[in-house]
Amino acid sequence: MDSFLKSGKLGDTASSKSSTSGISKKKDKKLQWVEKYRPRTVEDVVEQKEVVALLQECILGADLPNLLFYGPPGTGKTSTILAAARQLFGDIYKDRILELNASDDRGIQVIREKIKTYAQLSVASSRADGKACPALKIVILDEADAMTDAAQTALRRTMEKEAKTTRFCLLCNYVSRIIEPLTSRCTKFRFKPLNQSFVLERLQLICTKEDVLVDDDVLNILVKESGGDLRRAITALQSCAHLKGKGNKIALENVYDVLTVVPSDWITNFFNLCKNESDINEIIRFINDLEQQAYPCHKIFEQLNDLLIEAEISEPLKAEIGEYLAESSFRSSCSRSDFTHLLDFAVHVQEILTVPVEHRKAKAEKIARSTMINGIA
Ligand SMILES: Nc1ncnc2c1ncn2[C@@H]1O[C@H](COP(=O)(O)OP(=O)(O)OP(=O)(O)O)[C@@H](O)[C@H]1O
Ligand SMILES: [Mg+2]
């Protein structure tokens, strides 16, 4: 990481050497920034200290265990295992890994045949450059949480049988979807969402390398909206840079457009309309205008939630609005009528804030009773 921040170059000398040729420069230009700035050594991996420490030991000669990396997207799971493989095996690292993801068929048959056949291949204990390396291969199962329980069960035996020659690295977002017998055979690492300061540091560096013009406060919004997902942050930065073209400064609106963030004015105005006893026609007009902007409804609710947390409302009322916000957000994800969900939310918030709680309870009970009577009738 330190070396990366000092030199601004990712990875080993081999990659920096190759980037001096004209051909690689051309290739570099076409490369997506997420790939171009993917860590090439485990030291380049930002923040995930525990796993980096373990892999550094393995690179120095300690035995490599079966691994399970889990956590949210864009936090470095795939990058970390690829960087470790590159360091362990040098130029031949691609021969020493078998990468399978959810788009490959990974039913029991594949586990039994493809993985088993690969696992049984024997490999040398030296690299192409003559240096010693572990006589191992690594099977990387990306999106392991998408594998069926039957396939995971089949993997259990394979893992044990091929322990002498093969290590498995399971990557997933949801560890709860991995069966217990598999998790207990692996050393587990949770990849945390990246700290905003690290994401900012990395984006600033990419901006310097790629001659991107952007102010720090705009970059900060981009970082915040990426929610600790570095892939999302880098991809958004590249999209903004392309949108503006070379030599033009990225503006806040560009970040909002690329990440489909609703400008904060819309959210604040909407919340104020709900809070103040506004006329229903005014609310309807506002929601119609908001709909015209085609912002996704779930995003509006997500941003309303951020605003609610900071709002100057008593805690019990805040909790009540929060609960209704969660329900509205869920309902909106199940249907397409954004207008109805936003109007329903606005009216409900008005009621929470203006009608005393005992009146609302009495009203709710009356509705429940009449629904029951109608149901029986
Ligand atoms: N910890 C990190 N250190 C350095 N770069 C990172 C890190 N995490 C993510 N990145 C950047 O984001 C890109 C995507 O990372 P990666 O593919 O490793 O994420 P992932 O955790 O495997 O995500 P997913 O769960 O979606 O597969 C990388 O190419 C790299 O540029
Ligand atoms: Mg991945």
TrEMBL record:
Keyword list, A-Z: ATP-binding, DNA replication, Nucleotide-binding
Limits of the AAA+ ATPase domain: 63-195
GO biological process terms on file: DNA replication
InterPro entries attached to this UniProt entry: AAA+_ATPase (IPR003593), ATPase_AAA_core (IPR003959), DNA_pol3_clamp-load_cplx_C (IPR008921), DNA_Rep/Repair_Clamp_Loader (IPR050238), P-loop_NTPase (IPR027417), Rep_factorC_C (IPR013748), RFC_lid (IPR047854)
Source taxon at top rank: Eukaryota
Ribosomal protein as UniProt keyword: no
Gene3D superfamilies attached to this UniProt entry: 1.10.8.60, 1.20.272.10, P-loop containing nucleotide triphosphate hydrolases
Region feature (Disordered): 1-23
GO molecular function: ATP binding
Isomerase in keyword set: no
Similarity annotation: Belongs to the activator 1 small subunits family.
Protein name: AAA+ ATPase domain-containing protein
